[in-house]
Amino acid sequence: MKKIKVGIIGMGVGSKHYDVIKKINYCSIVAICEFNKRKLNSKNIQTQNIFKTNNYKELLKKNIDLIIISSYDNFHSQQIIDCVKNGIHVFVEKPLCITKEEIYKIKKVLKKNPHIKFSSNFVLRTKKTFKHLKSIIDKQKFGKTYYFEGDYNFGRLEKITAGWRSKILSYSVMHGGGIHLIDLIMWINNKKIIKVFADGNNISTHNTRFKSKDLVVSILKFEDGSIAKVTANFGSITPHHHILNVYGTKGTYFHSHRNDLIYNSRNPKFKPRNIFFKKNYVNQGDVLKSFIKSLISKEKPLVSKKEALNSMIVSLAVEDSLKKKKWIKVNY
Ligand SMILES: NC(=O)c1ccc[n+]([C@@H]2O[C@H](COP(=O)([O-])OP(=O)(O)OC[C@H]3O[C@@H](n4cnc5c(N)ncnc54)[C@H](O)[C@@H]3O)[C@@H](O)[C@H]2O)c1
Question: Does ligand 1 come within 6 angstroms of the Cβ of 197?
Answer without folding.
Answer: no
